[in-house]
Amino acid sequence: MQRYYTDPWLQELHTKILDSFAEGDRHLVVLEETIFYPTGGGQPHDLGSINQIPLLDVFERDGTVVHVLEHAPVGDEAYCVLDWSRRLDHMQQHSGQHLLSAVLQEHFGYRTESFHLGEDYSTIDISTPNLSEEEQRSAEQQANELVFSNLPLLTYTLKPNEQASVPLRKIPDLEGDLRIVEIEGFDYSPCAGTHVQSTSQIGLVKIIKCEKYKGMTRVYFLCGNRSLEDYRRKQKVCLSLGSLLSVSESDLPSRVALEVERKQELEKQIEELQTELMDLHAQSIVAREESPFFLELPKATIEEAQKQARSILNLTTGTVIISLDERFVLMHNQPNDLHLGQFIREKAQPLGGRGGGNATSAQVYFPDPDGYDKFSKMLKTDLL
Ligand SMILES: [Zn+2]
Question: In CATH, what number is assigned to the domain containing residue 142?
């Protein structure tokens, strides 16, 4: 007997083991009665233990609920303990989905085409290419008002000749008896999952994101404890940012926008100062040295090194070689046929160097320090 249907609040159960056998490296058990819901209808299976042996999976095979255990239980008595927080979480998300789908259909005519209950969030795909911000807000508001109304969720079975008597939200492909989950007087859905007993047990329903998906809209949502956890996380983010910037939560957006603007302004100033500094550095180098100019700028980026090389060559004619961390940047403006890209290909690549360039500008990177050292020595003898 599937006690998860008749009493979804039952968390412990003494029952009998009807069948117990190995299959591959797993051990399977069939029970006289069970509180463990098997994967199905978009809802993941329950977890827990049987005789303190952890349950790994629960599935349905030919109408029988099969429990997968780490190893075989002893005897024919079974003491089942349900992982209640996981089950309650699944019931909150699943019942919340009924509520949200019903509201979207009732108020906007958007059908729910599919449902997925994930580990972090749940999604429904609804029959509209776009759900406006106003519609999202309105659907969320109405779903939560139904939560506050504490409507009972009823489950019952209808025979085929009784099915026309209720306004089913979705007509299933199945023939025969239908298990109906009713949000009293509001929504009637055929469903084989487990549900809470009243809408208030769903807790807060929160839409967190909507995106376009195959001509439909995928609505991401959270219910119950997941909404509370999400609120905690977001509050923590707001509090830590507020304390970092010394502003109240409501002033955060404008303050962050201001900080971003300031940062861009400062970056511009730094760039101008760097250019000035490089020009001064170039002047001092050209005043005391002759080409080829060797520089070490271990912390510079390639772009900064190239900028420094250009600032030197703006003042004089010659060749600049800048060594960075595991890398060289080379540049020249001499009226000769020196081709730096070709030089890298011929001299650096055989030493493991990766890079290249054109006649007047090139760069090379050495993953191996040995290649870097050899090329460094070669530069002074072969290039010039
Ligand atoms: Zn359901």
Answer: 3.30.980.10
Q: How far is the CA of 223 from the centre of ligand 1 (A)?
A: 14
**Angle between the N-to-C axes of helices 225-245 and 252-288, in degrees from 0 to 180, rounded to the nearest 10:** 50
Could you tell me the distance, in angstroms and rounded to a whole number, from the CA of residue 193 to the centre of ligand 1?
Answer: 5
Contact 152, 67 (CB under 8 A): no
Asked whether residue 180 is domain-assigned, the answer is yes
Report the separation in Å between the CA atom of 82 and the middle of ligand 1, taken as the mean of its atom positions: 20
What's the CATH code of the domain at 14? 2.40.30.130
CA of 188 to the centre of ligand 1 (A): 10
Degrees, nearest 5: CA angle 80-86-90 = 115
Rounded CA-CA distance 116/197 in Å is 21
CA of residue 98 to ligand 1 center, whole Å: 6
pLDDT tens digits, 168-197:
887 777 778 999 999 999 999 999 899 999
For residue 239, tell me if it sits in a domain.
no
User: Which pTM does this prediction carry?
Assistant: 0.77
Q: Residues lining ligand 1 (ion), CB within 5 A?
A: 181, 191, 193
Residues 135 and 62 in one domain: no
